[in-house]
Design brief:
It contains two helices and 35 strands. With 414 residues, it is mainly β. The relative contact order is 0.11.
Amino acid sequence: MKKYHLIILLIIALISSLNAQNELDTIWSTKISDMYDAKITPDNSRIIVASEESILVLDEATGETIKELDYQTRFNYKITISSDSKYLYTSQAMVWDLDTYELILDSSDVYLGKDICLSSDNSNLYIVSSGTGGGLENNRIISLRTSDLSKIQSLGDTNTDELKHYKLVAISNDNKYLVVAGSEEKIIQPDERSEYTRVLEVYDPVSFEKLNTILRYKNEFTETNDLSITEDSKTLIFTDSGSLIYYDFDTEESEVKLEKVELPNINHHTFQLSDSEDHIFVNTLGLITGKLYNTSEFMEVADIPISHAYVHDFKEGKVLFGNSAFIYYYDLNNVINSILTESVENLILRNNRISFNSKSNITLSIYDYLGNEHISREVNPGPFNMSLSNLMGGFYLITFNNGAEFQTIKYIRR
C-alpha cells in the first residue's frame, strides 16, 4: 500500500512539474508578415523586426509599433545592433540610426548578405555575402568598416572549380576568433553531380588567417544549423546533426576535441545563450526546451503555439521567437525559477553524474516512472557528487526533500 501512495505522490509531483513548466508568461504577440529576423536592443527598450515588407521597431514592453522603416526585399536577411543601441545593421550592408530612424549608409547594391556579426567595439562588420565564382554563386565572408561600409577584405574568393557556400558567421567578444560555417562545392564536370564538403572553421578577424578547422566532412544532407560564442570568448557552441556541440578555443591539444550533447530530436535547431553565466539554452521546434545550469539533459519548458519557429533573441530570461507569420515574446523567469530548489544550487547533470551544492540536510531519491526506488541518499550541507552509471536507460524522477520542500526534476538516462 505504501508503494501505491508513493506512486501517487510521484505522479502528482510530475504533473505539478509539467504544469509549472508550461505556465509561460506571455508579454505580447503580434502578426508579422514574412519575418526574417528579430533582435532585442542591448538597452532592452525596443525590438527590431526584419521582414520582407519593412523593418519594424517595436516597444519592448507592449509590442506596439514605434516606427516602420521603409525597406522591401525578397531576400532573407539578418540584422544586428550596436552595443550602445544606436545603430542597426543589416546583412545587406545597410545602416540605420536608431535615434533618428534615418538610413545613413547603404551598400545593398553591392552586397547581398545572408548572415551578419559585429565586433564588440562596433568598428567592424562581417557579413556572408553572395557573389560569383566562375559565373556561379559563391558566398564569401566580407569585412567592412562600420564608419563608411568600406571593404577591408574578403574570405572565399575562389577559382572556377571550387565554390564557397558560407552560411553562418560569429565573432568572439574579445575579437580574437571569427567562426564561419558552410560548405565547399567542387565542380567536377558541368553535367556531373558536385561534391560537397561541410566546413566549420576559425579565422583571425583581422588578418583572415585560418586558426583551426573544427569540422570538415563530406555530407550533402547535414549542416551546422546555428552557432554562438559564450560571453567569456572561451567556448563555441553550435548545433549539427542533432547534437549541441562545444568547442574550447583555449585547448592546447593538437587534435580538435568536441563535447556533444544529444538534442531532443534531429531536426533543425536554433538557440540562444542567456546573458548570465549559467548559459541557459532555448531551442524551439514546436516546443521550447531548456538546458539549464550546466546540465547535459534538456528539459521541456513549454509548448509554443506555432510550429517551425526560430529563436531570435534571449535576454534577462525573456525569449523572442517566431516564424514567417507571427512573433512571440515570452517571460521565462518564472519557468526557470520553478525548476530550481531553495535547498540545492549549482545542479549539474552530465556524463551520467549528478553534482550540486546542498544548502541543508536533504534526502536525494531516484525513482523510475513506475515508482520503483533505485537510489536513496542522505546528503549533508555542502558539495555532493554521485555517479548514475548503474541506472538502466530510461526515464527517471530525481527528488530532493529537505523536510519542508519536495522538489522533482526529470532525468533521462541514455
